Fold this sequence. Notes:
By secondary structure, the protein is of the alpha+beta class.
Amino acid sequence: MFKKSHYIFSILNSPRRKLLFGIIVSGLIACLFIKFISFTFNSRTCSLIDMFRDYYAFYQDQYLKPLDYSLVTIPFHYDNSGLILLPIQLNGRKTDFLLDTGCSQTIIWENTANSITKVECLPMYVDGVWSNADICNIEKMVIGGSTLSNICLFVQPFSDAPDKTAGLLGGNILKRFTLTIDYKAKQLSLIDPRKALSFSSNAVVVPFKDYNNIPLIGIILDRTEKLSAVVDTGATFNTVFESVVAKLLRGPISACDSVSGLQLRTGDIGFECFKNLQVGSLKFPKPIFAVMLRKKNVSMGDLSDAAILGNNFLSHFRVTIDYQHKVVVFDPINHMVSTAADLLAYGDYLGSHRHAQDALAVYDRALALEPELAIKGYLGRADIKTQLKQYKGAVADFTKAIVLDPYCSDTFKGRGYAYQQLGNDADAIRDFDKALSLDLENTSVYDLRAQSYRKLGKESLALQDRQKARELTSGYKK
């Protein structure tokens, strides 16, 4: 054995042979290295050059800030669900983004990204595993009068993305500024973070923990339950998990709606009115919270049990988020006066607790206060009138909502049901057809349409719909 190994090393004593051997070994190592770093995700291959270029763009986006600040004030408007929409230009194209302080990154919807620029794959090492992230580079993003260059955005094929929006404006871009959101004036101010700010004597300053660009503050519910809460302009309502506040609930919570989101906030919700909410030294009476009835068994770090302070609470203030000094300032503008967003949440709470007549009055007040939130008011009112079996009034309100947003499957389902109860099965079927054209997996619509088909004597069509409903609910196939 010794002689054989001695013979092998003696061959390599020649300089030329050593050089040749080194070239061969280096080539093998290079092949293995290239093979290791060439990942294929979703049928797209990321080469070594692509990977380094994308990582450079990504980390440049995370840590570099604009050098030239000037005060930028941007008027905003609301979408159909009461979320803030900001006009933003991407590579010269006008778009609307949702202002979302509860989202750590800025996200662009896949259909918008593909129409503006090239979408590429970025491999990322997260929690011990390699996974892919689709990204795109925006050469020029204009927010009001502020221009950002070569911005890297995450691309998300979010199936429940709100219509007419291009994406979410999240914390990685927002933290470059100090934000002031004036709900009364309906405008957002982007301020130089180095500038000292002044507030009214009634303003309450609350420190926050920066959790991956998300402001996380401490709150107290009903004087006893201390919670962490996200200051989230991307949430219509305050939200809390049922399991976290179980001992504060006055009784069982009935599911009256469902929500879906990017960060595991997905499931059925009911509504509860708590006794009071304390934020810093600020005390707020009878806050309305959406209560998540189911919680996924997925760890979200410090956000696992976090509540959300949404627009129904935030709309009572001029809210300033200072990312540099890690404080949120609540400057009261409508502290003790009901806002449209708060009234809509209160209407949902009353409706879910069977206080139908009171809910109708509250929705009427909300509609008078904020015309841009009319669709939520009409839908809430239509649901209550359906509960009260006032089907003609329900049809009228569903129709008003459809005029404002003709792309919601559940709105057509609701009007179809009202038509059905009025004995107008032909119009009901037309609405059910439209509802299914917008959402083929809206299971309850098949059952409703089957009932109308049966009333019209169309038994074969009714049977097909009942069969389809069974397939969707239980996986049953004939």
